Amino acid sequence: MTTIAQVSDLHFGSEDPATTETLIHELNVAELDLVILSGDLTLAARHDEFERAREFIDRLKAPTLAVPGNHDVTPWNIPERLLHPWRRWRHYIAEDLEPAWFGPDVAVVGLNTARRMRLKLDWSHGSLSRGQIRTLDERFVVAPDGAFRIIVAHHPFLEEEGADLATRPKAIVQRAKKALKVFVDERVDLVTAGHLHRTYAAAFETAPATSAVVAEAGEAAHRVTVIQAGTALSSRTRGEANAFNLIEIADGRMEVRAVTWSGVKWARNPDPLVVIERPSSATK
Fold first, then answer.
1. Which residues pair with 243 in a beta bridge?
2. Does the keyword Metal-binding apply (predicted)?
3. What tens digit of pLDDT does each residue of 217-236 get?
4. How many domains, in total, are found in the chain?
5. Among 43, 52, 178, 259, which residue has the fewest nearby CB atoms (within 10 Å)?
6. CA-CA distances (angstroms) from residue 3 to 25, 168, 237, 246?
C-alpha cells in the first residue's frame, strides 16, 4: 500500500500552535510514504513564517513534495516580488518549484500555478503557461506502467458542484480547460489543489480526442478527478474545520478521505470523497 497525505494552506502566521503539534503527530503516526504540500505554506511570505514552515517539514518523518501558493510570494517587497519572486521559497523550502515523486504504484508531479503578477488587479489567482501544459507528457515519462497519476497544484481547476459563485469568488486557474484536456490525454487520475480552504471533489471527463495516439488506440473516455483540501492549520477556515486529505493506494484502487480536526483529535471521514479503480489489465 502507498499512503499519501495532501496538506494544504498551512498559512504559518495564522496557525494555532497546539493544532500544529497534533497535526505533526498525526502525520508521523500514519507512516506515510509522502506528504503533499499544495501551496500557501505562509500567510504573507515573511521570513519568520517560512522558518516555521521549514521547521514543520523537518519534523515530518515522511518525504515531502511542495508547490508554492500565491501567499508564498511576498506582497510587501514589490521589487523582490517582480525580480526574484521565488527567492524565499527556494531558500527555506526547496529549489525545485515543480518537483516530482515516483512510487511503485503512483506518479506525483507538481505544477506551479502561483504567479508574481498578472495583468488583472487580483494577483492571487493562478495560471498555467502554455509551456507547462505542452510539456506535461515529459514529466510522466518515467512513471511506472499502470501507476496512478497525480498532479499537485495550488489553485483549483474545477468549481464545486452547486457552488454559489455570487457569494464565492471564482478562482479557477487560468487555462484550466486546456490543462484538463491534456490531463485526460496523459491519463492523470487525480489533481490535488487548495486555495479555497474548502474540501470537495469534482470530475472532468471527455473523450481523449486531442491525442492522436490515444484516439487511434480506441481508448475510452478518461475521468480526471479534482480533489480540494481545506486549510490544515489556519484560523481562516471559511466555515469549515481544519482538514487534510488522505490518499490510500492498494491493489489497483485509490481512495481519498478527508481527515478533519474536531478541536480534540483528527478523525478520518468513514466515507471516501473519491474512489478510483484500475481495470485489472492496467495493473499487470
1. 260
2. yes
3. 556 678 899 999 999 998 87
4. 1
5. 178
6. 16, 32, 25, 7
